[in-house]
Design a protein that fits this description.
With 145 residues, the protein is of the alpha+beta class. It has 3 helices and 7 strands, in the order E-H-H-E-E-E-E-E-E-H. It has a 7-stranded antiparallel sheet with strand order 1-7-6-5-4-3-2, covered by helices on one side. A hairpin with a 3-residue loop joins strand 5 and strand 6. The longest helix has 26 residues. The radius of gyration is 15 Å and the shape is globular.
Length: 145
């Protein structure tokens, strides 16, 4: 299983950031390879279930996601199944007017037939994508002058 850990500090209220990142419909705005999120349904734990379409290494994958843990304004965990099996965790912490956002993904590289080299390349691509997700999130909350 591959793992991706990213963190960014944003000068914005924690509640605003958490509300944004915890809504799966917003994710395609900051996650370039997440092509589509649809069928969003609220769950009793405060999270959501949804369907997604994701592009990785030129291949399209479809599946479902479900929030298995939801602690408002602190963290949430999404488990996905289908074309890609993963665990996605978002955590927010606030100090003064700064919010630290942590993004962790554990996933199974879905291309066993291509071998170890393909896994290394995909893992590297996903590492760059993680940096872009966090940069996009930060830009989303940075006021334009």
């Amino acid at each position: 299983m591959a793992r991706l850990d990213k963190e960014v500090t944003i000068e914005a209220p924690l509640e605003n950031i958490f509300r944004y990142i915890s809504n799966p419909s917003n994710m395609p705005e900051i996650w370039p390879s997440l092509i589509e999120v649809k069928g969003v349904q609220p769950l009793s734990n405060g999270g959501y279930s949804f369907q997604w379409v994701y592009k990785m290494a030129g291949m399209r994958f479809k599946g479902e996601g479900e929030y298995t843990v939801m602690d408002p304004n602190r963290f949430f965990v999404i488990n996905t199944r289908g074309g890609i099996v993963s665990m996605i965790a978002w955590t927010t912490r606030s100090k003064e007017n700064l919010t630290r956002v942590t993004f962790t993904v554990e996933y199974v590289v879905p291309v066993p037939l291509l071998g170890k080299l393909a896994e290394i390349i995909i893992t590297k691509m996903n590492e760059q994508e993680g940096d872009l997700i966090m940069a996009n999130l930060q830009a989303r909350f940075t006021p334009t002058n």
